[in-house]
Amino acid sequence: MSQALDTLWYTRCPVPTGLGIAVQKGWLEQTLNAQGTAIKSLRESENQAVRESHFDHTLQNSVRHGGNIPAIWARASGRETRVIGLSWQDEVQLILTLPGSGIKTAKDLKGRKFGLPLWASAQIDFSRAQAIRGLENALKLKGLQVSDVELVDYLRGGTHSDEAAQTVAGISTFGGRRNGGQSAELVGLLRGEVDAIFLKGASAAHVAHQFGLHTVIDTGSHPEPLIRANNGTPRTLSVDQHLLDHHYDAAVGILDSVLRAETWAWNNPEDTRRYLARETNSSEFWVTAAYGEDAHQRLRTNLHENSILGLQDFTDFLQRWNFIPQSFSVRDWIDPRPLESLRSATALAG
After folding, report:
1. SsuA/THI5-like domain location, by residue (predicted)?
2. How far apart are CA 241 and CA 110, in angstroms?
3. Which residues pair with 218 in a beta bridge?
4. Same structural domain for residues 183 and 132?
5. pLDDT digits (tens, 9 = 90+) for 277-305
6. Nearest-CA neighbor of 198 among 105, 114, 109, 139?
7. Is residue 188 part of a domain?
8. Domain assignment present for 224
9. Are residues 210 and 99 in the same domain?
10. CB-based burial label for 320 (10 Å; 0-12, 13-18, 19+)
């Protein structure tokens, strides 16, 4: 039997998600308030241990929608979490070089220097993992391996949750300053210390244009889904097991607000671009460049088989590169009941 929940903690990444729009529209709060539940933003907490739960999922009665690496790492490390939805929204995943590097295709990366971030103090270095994944997949297409490239680490201090999210003009950003900077490998590329780097999303599209960088390959647009599978493809909508066991109605309510936001997005492309620009700390132009003119139609949270297969392949990659202690069955990680409950309710209403 579902018990009343006092407070739900929510968090999402600065990327397109149904949860992000549901928060901005006030629908998550509306849905949960109707159950007698208050909602709080995990990333805006003054307590770093609470903010760090965005990455390690230790906070009870919480929901997270975003990049899958922290969610996978938490599960592989023993956290009792479950996935109740997956959203696959393709984004640019760029291998970038300077125009005069002579690197035209991924094949030309052989023997060259590739800059990688190294967050030595972070529990899970998701930025490094996604960069290696992008590099490995790009090289694989040309019959090469990561060992064919010289890796150059750019050490960063601090963690991803050093400071609370800031609010400017009523709009919440995603985290404060991070000790050690944001793009040391980009600076290294511009200085000529390395020959190539990996960046993804709206910021990558903007940076590539701003500095006139050459795109060697965009693995995010490759026709093979497993080449596109990375930290953001698919994104995980995950909750802790305690929430499902004791506050099942809250889990269903979360998913209901997410699907409601996505349905709204499909019919409101211009407004959706504005919302996604806020979510990504970017502009509508770069949101379109990174996620496509049909970005509003790509907001679809479900449990599609391709998403499950992509997530399993990526989980195995993380274990192979020692980013997680062990691999596991993604299919067993998924709890389809909340989605099934919503579909049954919709069928009955229809």
Report:
1. 72-154
2. 45
3. 94
4. yes
5. 999 999 999 999 999 999 999 999 999 99
6. 114
7. yes
8. no
9. yes
10. exposed
Select from 308, 272, 319 the least CA-distant residue to 85. Answer: 308
User: Domain boundary at 166, 191, 219, which?
Assistant: 219
Which residue, of 191, 219, 247, is where some domain finishes?
A: 219
Distance from C-alpha of 243 to C-alpha of 221, rounded to nearest angstrom: 36
Count the domains in the chain.
2
One domain, residues 99 and 213: yes
> How is residue 21 written in tokens?
């729009």
pLDDT at 179 (0 to 100) = 43
Cα separation, 28 vs 227, in Å, equals 33
Specify if 2 maps to a domain: no
Task: Compute the distance between CA of residue 181 and CA of residue 199 in angstroms, rounded to an integer.
Answer: 15
Question: Are the C-beta atoms of residues 342 and 259 closer than 8 Å to each other?
Answer: yes
Q: Which residues does the chain have with pLDDT short of 70?
A: 1, 158-182, 347-350
Q: Would residue 19 count as lying in a domain?
A: yes
d(CA 279, CA 327): 31
Residues 99 and 179 placed together within one structural domain of the fold? yes
pTM: 0.92
Contact 154, 142 (CB under 8 A): no
User: Angle, nearest 10°, between helix axes 269-279 and 18-25?
Assistant: 100
User: Do 291 and 74 contact (CB within 8 A), yes or no?
Assistant: no
- What is residue 159's predicted lDDT score, i.e. its pLDDT? 61
Of the candidates 150, 59, 133, the one whose C-alpha atom is nearest the C-alpha of residue 95 is 133
Domain that holds residue 313: 7-88+233-349
CA–CA dist 296, 276 (Å, integer): 9
For position 98, which CATH number holds? 3.40.190.10
103 and 68 assigned to the same domain? no
What is residue 207's three-state secondary structure? helix
DSSP state of 197: E
